[in-house]
Amino acid sequence: MCDSDALTRYIEITELERALAANGKHKDAKVLTPLRQDIKEYWAYAKIADSNLIFVDIGLGLYIEMTFEEAKKWTQDTVARINGKIDWLLHR
Prior knowledge:
Layout: H1 3-23, E1 29-31, E2 45-47, E3 53-59, E4 62-67, H2 68-90
Antiparallel strand pairs: 1-2, 3-4
C-alpha cells in the first residue's frame, strides 16, 4: 500500500466514524481495521470498554485498574525500588 492509498483509507475511515457519530445509533462503536495489509479488509461495529483505564499486574496474580499516567508512575517507582535493592545487594 503506498502513502496515497493510506491517506485515502484514513479519510474514508474518518468520514465513516463521523457518520456513525452523527447517526447516534452507534455512538459507542469504533471502526476496526485489519492489523496487517496482506489480509482481506473487513469492517465491524464493536462496543468497547473504557480505554482510559488499564489493568496492571502488580504481582501475586493481583491486577489493579489504573489510568495510563498512574500505571507509568507505578512502573517507574517499581523499577526504582528494584534497582535500589539490586544496588544494596551488590554493595553490601
